[in-house]
Structure formats: structure tokens, C-alpha cells
Automatic annotation (TrEMBL):
Signal peptide: none annotated. Residues 1-80 are annotated as: Disordered. The gene is LOC108615407. This is Protein spinster isoform X2. It comes from Drosophila arizonae (Fruit fly). It is found in: Membrane.
Length: 590
């Protein structure tokens, strides 16, 4: 390489250590050798560093000292603190995510009133959420594709404006067909924001700061959902009309559109210091993602999380309301009161569970680099018996049920920020929006797109079976009684008993159908346990792939062995993988 080319070479983020810790750009170089890194690789522990950590461990610091001495690549740019623009961006994104989930679960807080207005049963009520999620997941890949190529700011502006408008118009629909149509349109708008927003945070921060900001961003899922129940039920009660509950978030949506239009869209890969991002075809990117075992397995685990949370979030208030009415003295209990309490539990569990996941990740990573998927697995396997116990206890023990429900939700909330961080550090920057879109498509297609409808349909089928058997028994009883006495009072008593039995059957049928979520939680835990077998190696490859692409642009004749800093190719990759990567990179450019 000529002297001119060497002088034109601008330092790009280096090595695994420097990419994860921008503060190291101010540190002086320490001595080290390539053998240090080679020893790490040969020992079966590739040098990877999770961006989930809130504080750096001593062992990580020692390994980073080794890596800095290998000159794998130049040091990254310094980020001594968080700028006002970064704080503004995170604040806006968190606010929009909050009202996003408020809107998503407002209907669940007033579901009983919606069912009465449109005269629908549980299966049709579950279909309301299913059509929303179906449109959401279908359009997620489209917005993911555009999010990797076009202005993310304006894509989000259009999306938020769309779901705010359709939510408002839907509240005026007088027929179930019109209402469910606008509910589907809401999903299109929300797909744009949910797909793109996490990638902006990823491009603004690295290492521990990225983890903190992602945890803050994903607070909005449980907190926003809880606010949806609370605001929806409270507004409906004050206005004496459930439709007004749907008109709160569109007003907040107008504010969100204005704030998003003021947002600065960071360069893709900016936090890692990637100076130039070359786009590949969508098919090439998708094929590469499907070969990423950690991404595929963690997406499968997250799909189980989506299935469970989708079913419980939609049917939770309605089920608790039915269960509490089984207790003496609660015959006239309103669902608005139940939704308010359920919302508080959901919010509090989110405030505890999301940061607890990050704290546990930091602590466990000192001893195990595969901590993230292990924590996700543990959360699901712990949540399954807790939530099952809450379902069983609700008709008899209110306080015990609420306590079990709280800890069950805390356990499942350990997943949110960690799963998002796993995706961001096992996928290269130029493919993160596409990866987000694929994960959204898969998790919703097999998760919460069908779980509300599936639970509702199963409960309706079970209830109809119970009622059919009950009518047969009651008919035989009435015939026997009519032979003994012709007393009208006894007939009225049997009629009232039949009505009470129908309420019991409605509760029990929904309980049985919700038990399906227990199996799915355990299955999700298994997927995350398998992810732990591959997470360290896949993160190391994703990190080094960025460096490989940088060096490939600078290597004469596309020969990585002639790159200015080819040390990583001798330590982080085997020969077969390096050859495959070079071939893929060259084909992408062609």
C-alpha cells in the first residue's frame, strides 16, 4: 500500500474491546502480543464483550488490555459523555414507545364493554388483537427494509401519524366490521416505529450506556401497557363511554409527531465508528441472518414470550374480573376497578423486572459470558409456575393471586432489554433494522398474533361444551321435579342456578385455555438455554465482521492478508469462515 493511501486511512473502531468501550480511546496503548488473543480463542472463549453490561468487570478489563496491544484495528472515537441531542433522542423515543403500548392495551382495559356494545363472544374479542398484530407483523419487514436504507426519522413520523389517526377514527365506528378494520390499520403505523427505534439507540450508544438506554426504552412495554389499562378504564368510567378511552393516545400522538420531526437521525453504525456502510440485497441479508444461530434461537425464545404476554395482557383483566366475581360479595364488581389494579401490578413489575435483568446480566457475566440467554431462560422457567398459581388462586385468594401475578410478571420482564441487546450485538450494524423486522415478523406471526384469538376460541369451545352438558342434566332434573311437585318457585330457583353456572363455566373455560401459556413459557426457556451454547462465538463474529469489512475496503486486490491491520483474521476466525466472509462481502458489492 502506498504512503498516500496509508495517510488517507482514517482510524476505524477497533477490535472487540475498543468497540465495546469508547472511553478506551483516551487510554494509552499498552504492551501485548498476538499470542494473548490466540490463547483466548484456543481456550474456547472468543474475546467478546456484551453491550449489556452496566459496569465493566475486572476480567473484561484485563482481556481488553490484551486486545489493545494486538493492533487489530485503530481506536474508536471518544464519547466522554451524553450530549443534549442524545438525551433528546432517547427521551422522544421512550415517550413514543410509552404511548405506543398505551394504545395497544387500552381496549383490553374496557374489553367487557366492547363485547357488550358489539354483542361478540370471546373468540371475536380475541380477533380484535389478532388482526392488529397480523397487520403489524406483515408490514414490519417492509419498514425494516426501508429503515436500513432511508430516513428513519420520517418513516417514524409517518407511522405515528398513521396509527394516531386510525385509532381516533376507529373510536367512532358503530359496527364491529368497521371497528376491526381500523384496528388492523393501527398495526401498520405501529410497525414503523417499533422496528426502527431500537436501531437508532444502538447507533447512538455502545457498551454499558447502550444497555442503560435500552433498559429505559423497554420500560415502556410494561409501564405503557399498565397505563393503557389504567387510562382506558378510568377515562371510560368518567365519560360513561368506552370509546373515549381510545381518544387519549391520538392527542398524545400529535405531540409525538412534532417531537419526532425534530429528531436527528444518526449515521448507521455511528457508535461503532463505521465510516461507510455498503448495502446488500435483502435476500443476501436475510440469508446471513438465518445462518446466525444466536439470532434464530433467541428469536424463537422471544416468540414464546410474545405468545404468553399477548394472551395474558389481552385476557388478564377479563379473567381476573370473572375470578373475583366468584367470591362472595363481589357480584357487582366492575371491570374498570380490576383493570386499574392489574395496570398498577403490570407497571410496578415492569419497573422492577426490566432493570433487574440488566443488573443480573452484569453480575453473572463476571463468571459466565453467556449470561444473557441464561437469564432469559431462568425468567421464563420461573414465571411459568408463578403465573399458573395466580390463575388457580384468583377465585379464592385475591391477595395471594396478586402477589404471584406480580412476581410472575417480574420474572418475564427480565427478558425485554436483554433480548433486544442480544440482537444488537450478534448482528452487524448495517443489518439491524432488517433483523428487528424479521424478529418482529416471526415473534408476532407465531406469538401474540394468534394467542389472544386462540385462547378466546378455546375458551368459547370449552364453555359451549360445558353448557351443552349442563342443559342436559338440568333438563333431567326439571323433569324429575315436575313429577314430584308443581312448584313455580323451584323452577325460578333452577333458572337462577343455571345463570350462575354459566358464569362459572365462562370463568373455568377461560382458565383452562390460559393454561396453554404455561407450556409455551417452558418451551421458550428451552430455546434460550440452547442460545447460550452459541452466543459468545456469534457475538465475536459479528464484532469482527465490522472490522473485516473495514479492512477489506482498504486491502489491495481484496486480499485480507494484505490489509493494514489483519491481525484479527489470525485470531478471531478460522480459515474457512474467513474465506466465506470474504466471498460474501465481494458478492454483496457486485
Amino acid at each position: 500500500m502506498s504512503l498516500k493511501n496509508q495517510q488517507a486511512y482514517q482510524p476505524l473502531p477497533s477490535a472487540v474491546a475498543a468497540m465495546d468501550n469508547p472511553a478506551m480511546s483516551n487510554s494509552s496503548s499498552s504492551s501485548g502480543s498476538n499470542d494473548d488473543v490466540a490463547e483466548l480463542v484456543q481456550s474456547g472463549l472468543p474475546p467478546t464483550y456484551s453491550s449489556q453490561q452496566l459496569v465493566s468487570s475486572d476480567s473484561d478489563s484485563m482481556e481488553r488490555q490484551h486486545l489493545r496491544g494486538t493492533s487489530i484495528a485503530p481506536e474508536p472515537r471518544s464519547r466522554p459523555g451524553i450530549s443534549r441531542k442524545q438525551w433528546f433522542a432517547v427521551s422522544v423515543l421512550c415517550f413514543v414507545n410509552l404511548i405506543n403500548y398505551m394504545d395497544r392495551f387500552t381496549i383490553a382495559g374496557v374489553l367487557t364493554d366492547v363485547k357488550k356494545t358489539f354483542a361478540i363472544d370471546n373468540d371475536s374479542a380475541g380477533l380484535l388483537q389478532t388482526v392488529f398484530v397480523l397487520s403489524y407483523m406483515v408490514f414490519a419487514p417492509l419498514f425494516g427494509y426501508m429503515g436500513d436504507r432511508y430516513s428513519r426519522r420520517w418513516l417514524m413520523v409517518v407511522g405515528v401519524a398513521l396509527w394516531s389517526t386510525t385509532t381516533l377514527f376507529g373510536s367512532f365506528m358503530q359496527t364491529f366490521a368497521g371497528f376491526i378494520t381500523f384496528r388492523a390499520l393501527v398495526g401498520i403505523g405501529e410497525a414503523s416505529y417499533s422496528t426502527i427505534a431500537p436501531t437508532i439507540i444502538s447507533d447512538l450508544f455502545v457498551d454499558s450506556m447502550r444497555s442503560k438506554m435500552l433498559a429505559l426504552f423497554y420500560f415502556a412495554i410494561p409501564v405503557g401497557s399498565g397505563l393503557g389499562y389504567i387510562v382506558g378504564s378510568t377515562t371510560a368510567e368518567l365519560a360513561h363511554d368506552w370509546r373515549w378511552a381510545l381518544r387519549v393516545t391520538p392527542v398524545l400522538g400529535v405531540t409525538a409527531v412534532v417531537l419526532l420531526s425534530m429528531l436527528k437521525d444518526p449515521k448507521r453504525g455511528e457508535s461503532e465508528g463505521v465510516e461507510q456502510v455498503e448495502r446488500a440485497s435483502f435476500c443476501v441479508e436475510l440469508k446471513d441472518l438465518l445462518k446466525n444461530r444466536s439470532f434464530v434461537l433467541s428469536t424463537a425464545g422471544f416468540t414464546c414470550v410474545a405468545f404468553v404476554t399477548g394472551a395474558l395482557a389481552w385476557w388478564g383483566p377479563n379473567y381476573i374480573h370473572l375470578g373475583l366475581k366468584m367470591q362472595p360479595g363481589n357480584e357487582n364488581l366492575k371491570q374498570e376497578d380490576v383493570s386499574y389494579v392489574f395496570g398498577l401490578i403490570t407497571m410496578t413489575a415492569g419497573l422492577v423486572g426490566v432493570p433487574l435483568g440488566s443488573v443480573l446480566s452484569t453480575a453473572i457475566k463476571k463468571h459466565n459470558k453467556a449470561a444473557d440467554p441464561l437469564i432469559c431462560a431462568g425468567g421464563l422457567l420461573l414465571s411459568a409456575p408463578l403465573l399458573t398459581g395466580a390463575c388457580l388462586a384468583i377465585s379464592k385468594y385475591t391477595v395471594a393471586s396478586y402477589v404471584l401475578m406480580f412476581f410472575g410478571q417480574v420474572a418475564i420482564n427480565l427478558n425485554w432489554a436483554i433480548v433486544a441487546d442480544i440482537l444488537l450485538y450478534v448482528v452487524v450494524p448495517m443489518r439491524r433494522s432488517t433483523a428487528e423486522a424479521v424478529q418482529i415478523l416471526a415473534s408476532h406471526a407465531l406469538g401474540d398474533a394468534g394467542s389472544p384469538y386462540l385462547v378466546g376460541a378455546i375458551s368459547t369451545a370449552i364453555k359451549n361444551k360445558m353448557l351443552a352438558q349442563s342443559r342436559t342434566v338440568d333438563s333431567d332434573v326439571l323433569k324429575s321435579m315436575s313429577q314430584l311437585a308443581e312448584n313455580a318457585t323451584e323452577i325460578v330457583t333452577e333458572t337462577l342456578r343455571a345463570r350462575s353456572a354459566e358464569d362459572v363455566y365462562t370463568f373455568e373455560s377461560l382458565q383452562y385455555s390460559l393454561f396453554s401459556t404455561t407450556f409455551v413459557e417452558v418451551l421458550g426457556g428451552v430455546f434460550f438455554l440452547i442460545t447460550a451454547c452459541y452466543i459468545v462465538k456469534d457475538k465475536s463474529r459479528a464484532t469482527a465482521s465490522v472490522l473485516a469489512d473495514n479492512d477489506l475496503r482498504l486491502a489491495p486486490n481484496n486480499d485480507l492478508s494484505l490489509a493494514p491491520n489483519p491481525t484479527y483474521s489470525k485470531t478471531l476466525f478460522d480459515a474457512e469462515y474467513l474465506a466465506n466472509y470474504t466471498d460474501i462481502a465481494l458478492r454483496e458489492r457486485a
